[in-house]
Amino acid sequence: MVAHISAVIFPLIIIISVVPGSSLFSWHPTLMAVGASLLMVEGIVIFSKSSSLFPNMSRPTKASIHYLLMGGGVSCMIAGLVAIYLNKEQAGKPHFKSWHGLLGVITVGYACAQSSGGALAKYHKYVGPIIKIRLADLKLYHATSGLLAYLLVTVTLLLSLQTSWALTSIHWALWYASFASVCASAMVVMTHITTTYLPLVTGQRSK
Asked: How many Å apart are CA 76 and CA 31, to the nearest integer?
């Protein structure tokens, strides 16, 4: 249950601290936290034998839920990016000048590319003859690429806790709880990916 609790704690703390709708800026941390922490984590661990809320569900059904959760997560991240872009435009501030802002836009871009890879896997029967990649290989590439994607998400979220807004608006105890929840989610997600898919990569290389 660690994955689910930590996935909820971070966006909950952000929502309490920023109050969504109180300003245009408020939608940036809210949407990013919900998309990157809650929806993406749940979309990944649904495949985990130890962390999934539905361990006995068929894999095709899990894949469909994964598709919806990840699509929702990426959509929230894009909306969050738009919110902070418009907020900075209104304030006359420069864009992507901090490490958080720069890595954030890279992360959103990579997440979109990662989602495109997932769409190719889902609709492989239509695009397979065009892309010339076996479905098994495409799923493996998608999963291992997801490890880098979530690493980027984790670093971006941790950098968000170093911004002036987070340091001044989040209570110190909640700040440490946020930090711990992001790290806990990352450990669960990365452990799931490395233990499930990296052995397959090693097996392919040894052939």
From this structure: 5
Would you say 69 and 39 are in contact if contact means Cβ atoms under 8 Å apart? yes
Rg (CA), the chain: 18
- Cα 61 to chain centroid, rounded: 20
Token code pair at residue 166: 């987070």
Q: Give the integer Cα–Cα distance in Å for 162 and 173.
A: 15
For residue 52, count other CB atoms closer than 10 A to its CB. Answer: 19
Give the alpha-carbon dihedral of 118, 4, 176, 99, to 10 degrees: 10
Chain-centroid distance, C-alpha 153: 6
Q: Which domains does the chain have, with CATH numbers?
A: 1-202 (1.20.120.1770)
pTM of the model: 0.91
The residue count for the chain: 207
d(Cα 76, Cα 32) in Å, to the nearest integer? 6
3-state SS, residue 120: helix
Q: Give pLDDT tens digits for 100-137.
A: 999 999 999 999 999 999 999 989 999 988 988 888 88
